[in-house]
Amino acid sequence: MSYRGRFAPSPTGPLHAGSLVAALASWLDARAHGGEWLVRIEDVDGPRCPPGMDEVILGQLAALGLRPDEQPVWQSRRGDLYQAALDRLIASGHAYGCACTRAEISAAAGPKPKHGELIYPGTCRNGTQGRPARAWRFRVDGRIDWQDRRLGTQSQDLTTEVGDFVLKRADGLWAYQLAVVVDDADQGITDIVRGEDLADNTPRQIALQRALGFPTPHYLHTPLVLAMDGHKLSKQNGAAAIDLADPAGRLRDAAAELGLLLQARHRTTQETLAEALLQWREKGQVQRAGA
Prior knowledge:
Blueprint: E1 4-7, H1 17-32, E2 36-41, H2 53-63, E3 73-74, H3 79-91, E4 95-98, H4 102-109, E5 135-138, E6 143-148, E7 152-157, H5 158-161, E8 166-168, H6 176-186, E9 191-195, H7 202-212, E10 218-222, H8 247-257, H9 269-282
Parallel strand pairs: 1-2, 2-3, 9-10
Antiparallel strand pairs: 4-5, 5-8, 6-7
């Protein structure tokens, strides 16, 4: 199968140093395999996305020389695809309506697990007892084992560690897990290169892929970029936007986080990306199962 990769930023704020590392790694891996690189704007959670931030991000990528091979797509325009997938999951018994409020779940579920979401206790698995459904959930079943190109063999018991997770929220918005799985399948994505903080989401996405009959892509989760306090650099903790006064310099910084040491003599983004690509290939980081 030919290689199709993607970078899928959420436009809740401009790209920062951490998100640039993920963007650069996904671009390098696609180019190293002679494949295509796409950009998808993951604005499914509209209330958290300031107007115009999507164009800011696309402008940042262009200034860094990271241009997609196809026109970007926006999740906010793809609701019909998500509804069709949900209908299939309901019909197959993989999804069910949930009438529980957040307070009810909190009272019954106990402490949060490491991925920050309450483990749903399964209250509505066998029906809502006449109460109207507020959200739709995926019915999990046991353990998911998977292979990451950097992290190696991974495993998660969805039943005990995650619980039946939301596909469509009570406020009518689509959940990230369903949207990303539908989008990746619809766009023919074969390889997902993204930050290590998203590795914990992968078992849920594989479970959805299997339930919907979609292929499972190859996965590569890149190292996290940490702030001075040791926490992950993110928009939520105030990470600064990329300074584009020296785009080649920012690419060198991102490459260094990936173990690529580029020469400062390269002053253009084109030269910098070319050297980064050469080193990505030389370090053997392109290997993937079935490649």
